[in-house]
Amino acid sequence: MRIGDAAAAAGTTPRALRFYEQRGLLPPPARSASGQREYGPGEVARVQVIRRLLAAGLTVEDLASRARRLDGLFADPPLRCSGDPGPETFAPVITARLAALDEEIARLTALRARLAQHVATGGADVLGEVG
């Protein structure tokens, strides 16, 4: 199928498919005689997995670091993500992403506390410590 049909089947856009290809998440597809990209069900399944992983909070960079492992996630039957900390598994990537989220939550919690204090004091501490 052509890029527009593949994108629609995967629930995304042709631009996203080209972006995933450029970032190494999607292997370069076969080309028709006229040079148009041709996708099959495997590529559509891979894009669906990519979209689910991105929606779960992983980044494009996270996925690119384990692009070879993506095929196993849409295999039949799919491989399971294990807690195995091996260097080629997703476990280290997920652990790092969790740590980054924890840092961001701590930063936002501190920001919220400062804003709440600002409201509670009627803005008297507006020039206080920022950062």
Automatic annotation (TrEMBL):
MF term (GO), any: DNA binding
Keyword annotations: DNA-binding
Residues in HTH merR-type domain copies: 1-70
Record-annotated membrane-spanning stretches: none
SMART domains: HTH_MERR
InterPro entries referenced in this protein's UniProt entry, alphabetically: DNA-bd_dom_put_sf (IPR009061), MerR-type_HTH_dom (IPR000551), MerR_fam (IPR047057)
UniProt key word DNA-binding: yes
Protein name in UniProt: MerR family transcriptional regulator
Organism: Streptomyces rubellomurinus (strain ATCC 31215)
